[in-house]
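Your task:
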Amino acid sequence: MERGAESRAGAGADGCCGWCGGPMPGGMRAEAEVCGPRCRKRRWRFRRASSRIGQGGEPGGPAWRPMRFAYADPPYPGKAGYYVERQEVDHGALIEQLVAGYPDGWALSTAASSLRAVLPLCPASTRVCAWRRAVRWTHSRRALSAWEPLLVVGGRELGTNEPQDLVDALDYRGRYDSVPGALVGMKPPQFATWLFRLLGAQPGDELDDLYPGSGAIRRAWETFTAPGADLAER
């Protein structure tokens, strides 16, 4: 289990906090899952932001089947220096892997400045979605970039029994750095929920996070696909 991954039955045999992965202090109740109020609040906020509550999409119907999706959030072209590996990603090979391995659907994050180079490598059916994110003010000779493309291919068709409230643009400019092991470029849970809905994900589906980093996408996926979870208990 990755450090900081959530425990489903208390703090676990290793006596670690189910949120930050740190040691549990003495005197805690046997059923306690986190090391204190700070981690409890952070876990609750994360779970609430990545919850499927109020979004419908329960599996069912004679034609329903579980699907397997993938999400790739590699270092953006020319940005590998921000990471320890300092290794540029071959986006052509990555997209070939996604097309061949995930016929049900996949999504790829990239930078606005890289869209012209990356999009032609994708299938003609690719949908370009936009995340309007936080901006760090700085001196620049050009307008600062305030958005990132999310390239989406395939996915489950959405229901038409009621008006659609999902759009291909997300306006969330907050920053989220309270996840244990947070890294440069980590996506907030609001982004994860939007991504999952764009793919039409439901409980019973699978998601492969090809660049897991901090593990935030996996945490959000577990919350989003949990069947019958009560938000009040999160």
About this structure: Residues 130 and 169 are 5 Å apart (CA to CA). The chain has one domain: 61-233.
